[in-house]
Design goal:
Layout: E1 2-3, E2 12-15, E3 18-28, E4 36-43, E5 49-55, E6 59-62, E7 65-75, E8 79-84, E9 90-94, E10 109-115, E11 121-125, E12 129-137, E13 150-155, E14 160-164, E15 172-176, E16 181-186
Antiparallel strand pairs: 1-6, 2-3, 2-6, 3-4, 4-5, 7-8, 7-10, 8-9, 10-11, 12-13, 12-15, 13-14, 15-16
Length: 187
């Protein structure tokens, strides 16, 4: 059993008969009254996000997890297929288990979080940034642009990203997978 002082980003806990992963947390010690921990929890089974406040010292049941590197192979109607880089076994994950999957491309390495006791997959984490090729870009409109004019672009995975006016099809760009924002052009 863990307590609220053990809460950290990425911790998996049993809560309301489901397994949740801590996405955000904040220890609050008000001037008046007892301390507490405000958390944002994401269900690893269905992707639902809930806000919860734990009082200081509250006991929480931690779920032991392991992480393994897998290579993304392909997507079908129901989900995504991955291959273990060590023993070449394949694993399948539902679409709800992966956040921002529109930025995954075949051959990319992904970290899969598995329950320690039976090695059943809980969720997957894609890298924080990815390099993608721009396949098409809207024409940029020059004129009344004081600063940071952006246009729509489609990358090789089919995702839409807002990019600066100088980006053209064929350019490689670095994209932040958390919010889908353009970071820089890569030579």
């Amino acid at each position: 059993m863990a307590t609220t002082s053990d809460i950290r980003k990425g911790l998996c806990i049993n809560y309301s008969n489901d397994i949740y992963k801590v996405v955000e947390f904040l220890h609050v010690k008000p001037g008046k009254g007892p301390a507490f921990v405000r958390t944002k929890l994401k269900s690893v089974t269905n992707g639902k996000v809930v806000d919860n406040t734990f009082s200081a010292g509250h006991k929480i049941e931690e779920v032991k997890v392991i992480t393994r590197k897998f290579q993304y192979l392909y997507e079908d109607d129901n989900g995504y297929h991955f291959m273990n880089n060590d023993d070449f076994s394949q694993i399948y994950l539902n679409k709800e288990m992966i956040e921002n999957a529109q930025f995954m491309k075949a051959g990319e390495e992904v970290t899969i979080i598995m329950r320690d006791e039976d090695e059943s997959p809980l969720s997957a984490e894609i890298p924080a940034t990815v390099l993608l090729e721009v396949t098409e870009a809207d024409p940029g409109v020059k004129g009344n642009t004081a600063t940071n004019a952006l246009k729509n672009a489609t990358v090789e995975t089919g995702a839409r990203v807002m990019v600066p006016l100088f980006i053209e099809p064929g350019d490689m760009i670095k994209v932040n997978t958390e919010d889908g924002s353009y970071l820089e052009r890569v030579k």
